[in-house]
Design goal:
It is a single chain. The chain has one domain. Helix content is 49%, strand content 5%. It is built from three helices and two strands. The radius of gyration is 16 Å and the shape is flat.
């Protein structure tokens, strides 16, 4: 949001990830589709750029990936 007195102010919202231009639901759908098909058809289907699909997948994976998943692995 842009305030005439204090300038640009960024606030977190529950329906979007940080630095995201799409909602969580849209990004989750994109990441699910990326498990099933290539980026180019996803980009056509969802009307986003091919590289946008890649950035969305990176955000979703980093959001859901458990850093401790390999602890205790021998």
């Amino acid at each position: 949001m842009r305030c005439p007195d204090c300038g640009v102010r960024v606030e977190a919202v529950p329906f979007a990830r940080p630095r995201a231009r799409h909602t969580r639901d849209f990004e989750d759908l994109t990441a699910f589709l990326a498990q099933q098909m290539a980026k180019a058809p996803i980009a056509l289907l969802l009307r986003v750029r091919w590289d946008t699909v890649g950035r969305i997948v990176e955000r979703v994976v980093s959001d859901h990936l458990d850093e401790r998943r390999l602890e205790g692995l021998v």
